[in-house]
Amino acid sequence: MTVRRWIKSGKINAVQIGREARIPMTEIERLLGERPEGVVALYARVSGRDQKADLDRQVKVLEDWVVRERSGRETLVISDIGSGLNAKRKGLGKLIKKAQDRKIAEVVVTYQDRLTRFGFEYLRALFLTCSVRLTVLNDDEETTPEKELTDDLIAIIASFSGRLYGKRSHKKKELVKCAKKVLDKP
After folding, report:
1. Helix or strand or coil: residue 51?
2. Are 65 and 108 spatial neighbours (Cβ–Cβ below 8 Å)?
3. Which residues touch 92 (CB under 8 Å, ≥6 apart)?
4. Per-residue pLDDT at 176 exceeds 60
5. What's 38-136's CATH class?
6. What's the rounded mean pLDDT across residues 150-175?
7. Are 75 and 66 a contacting pair, CB within 8 Å?
8. Looking at residue 63, what is its pLDDT?
9. Which residues pair with 16 in a beta bridge?
10. What is the residue-wise DSSP string for 62-123?
């Protein structure tokens, strides 16, 4: 009841979502007199170069969020173009290294699958051990087990078909390169 009165009187800022009010973390930190120090890392990822517009859109959403929710905090934008199943992405490696070195205080992503397709809970645990908060802006709690399984299967099929076609493309390039060498010799 006290919190509701404070919201009504303007003592606490809250965001109305339907009939409920959500209190931003920045408000709680303000009330407690705490302001967590450290960099907020904004991480965005897309699967292919043809999705560059989506990557830019993700970064914009993350930057807008940090202005609203973590005003005044230093930010670092890290992005990747690659499969969510690929654990060797440069940006992801950089993000984990900075977390281990205690150079960031929070990692923010638009959706869980932007960070990784599988093993999200492992990354959450890793960041937790490094005292790094992991924030997912669109945490889809409404996902049914059937939808989750379907999404996972589609992700696996898409990733493996991408690898298969990528390998074929590489073989074709090598074949063309070899053929040109042979043809160029008198």
Report:
1. helix
2. yes
3. 43, 45, 80, 115, 116
4. yes
5. alpha beta
6. 69
7. yes
8. 94
9. 21
10. HHHHHHHHSTT--EEEEEEES-TT-TT-HHHHHHHHHHHTT-EEEEEESSHHHH-SS-HHHH
> Measured between alpha carbons, how far is 107 from 93 in angstroms, rounded to an integer?
13
Provide the CB-side half-sphere exposure for 117 (13 A, CA).
20
166 pLDDT above the threshold of 90: no
> Phi-psi region for residue 128, left (φ > 0), alpha (ψ -120 to 50) or beta?
alpha
Structure tokens at 183: 């043809």
Instruction: Write the DSSP string, 160-182.
Output: HHHHHHHHHHHHHHHHHHHHHHH
9 labelled catalytic:
no
Dihedral angle of Cα 108, 110, 111, 113, to the nearest 10 degrees:
-80
How many Cα atoms are found within 13 Å in the side-chain-facing hemisphere of 35?
Answer: 7
Q: Token pair 């890290």 is at which residue?
A: 78
C-alpha closest to that of 136 among 163, 155, 110: 110
Instruction: For residue 43, give the nearest of 148, 120, 144 by alpha carbon.
Output: 120
pTM listed for this prediction:
0.61
Catalytic, out of 47, 79, 159, 161: 47
> DSSP code of 50?
G
Report the pLDDT averaged over residues 8-36: 75
Strand order in the sheet with 75-81: 75-81, 39-46, 104-109, 133-136
Report the alpha-carbon distance of residue 41 to residue 72 in Å, rounded.
14
